[in-house]
């Protein structure tokens, strides 16, 4: 019983820490007004790295051993733990999926940033790729994500035009 109580305390600390990570990941991002679309990819790469590290820790032999001991003891703390484990898995899958889809846009980011204002040749392919992401991604096809992406693409186009005008 004493061992079970100590392990439950440990799991409760982990639960609190994981909840904090989830809360922070769900907060609205603060970004500069002129940030380009590559920032979107970097955000999701960073998020994927964080959640994958967290998943690796959760799946470690040490954690698995503690969880199995608490399962044998029929601990009540496991209900919360399983719910958080599921949420972390979903967040990791979302980040991984979003990175995969945003990488399909990566080839447009360079030309978009370095082109002259006559960047029209890149726009149809870029929009087709964005449309493909919207139609096929199980996570990225929300109004919030698409608005953020379009805002960043537009910012990049404006920055490119400003640079061109200042050099000319």
TrEMBL record:
Record protein name field: DYH5 protein
InterPro entries per the UniProt record, alphabetical: DHC (IPR026983), Dynein_heavy_tail (IPR013594)
Domain Dynein heavy chain tail: 5-166
Molecular function terms from GO: dynein intermediate chain binding; dynein light intermediate chain binding
Entry GO CC: axonemal dynein complex
UniProt record, GO biological process: microtubule-based movement
UniProt gene name: Dnah5_0
UniProt cross-references to Pfam families, sorted A to Z: DHC_N1
